[in-house]
Amino acid sequence: LGSAPSVAEIEALEPCGVFIACGAQPWRPPIPGATDSHVHTAEDVLLGRAEPTGQVAVIGTGMTGLEAAEILIERGCKITLVEMLNDLGPGMLPMVVNDVMGRVNLGKPRILTGHRLEAIADDTIRLTRLADESTETVPADYVVLAAGVRPRSDVAERYRSLPNLRIIGDAARSGRILEATQDGYAKASVFEPLTDHNSQRSEA
Length: 204
Hints:
The protein is an alpha/beta fold and 204 residues long. The chain is 30% helix and 25% strand. The protein has a five-stranded parallel sheet with strand order 3-10-4-5-6. It has a three-stranded antiparallel sheet with strand order 7-8-9, with no helix packed on it. The two termini are 34 Å apart.
């Protein structure tokens, strides 16, 4: 409908129940520089809202991070991939990781696994190597964050007062498309519409 409905507008529809599927939003770590103008999310890159150039540090190598890296390499960017865990593509099937990395590797990215992002400056990032807690500074004209998502709890909370409310998918708990669709199916399968009796009882 082009706008977020108010609680009153939803109540005017007299629904027998309400499902909230407002999804999640990219997470920015609470570190210095995370909200600077040259710092974008992988979602921004994938949707064309940001077009980093030059040396780009991609923080996080899940599916979203690797897809963003692939796009940036196609545009001629020099990529540094930073991952806290010891392997790329956490939670992804090895065949999928190999497929994406086959294209990403064409850009000869620098890969730093086992590293944690500590701070972002104007043209560098500071990392900690987890194996020995040593620090390293890496050049970066732009930074792309692919550090996961968090449920849009502020949106869900806006409608908490509505009767027979169900919050589903990433709005309830961050996950992948499989978990999101399973959650929606499961809650829809056991959904019981409000009756006048149930409505009166809940108001009492």
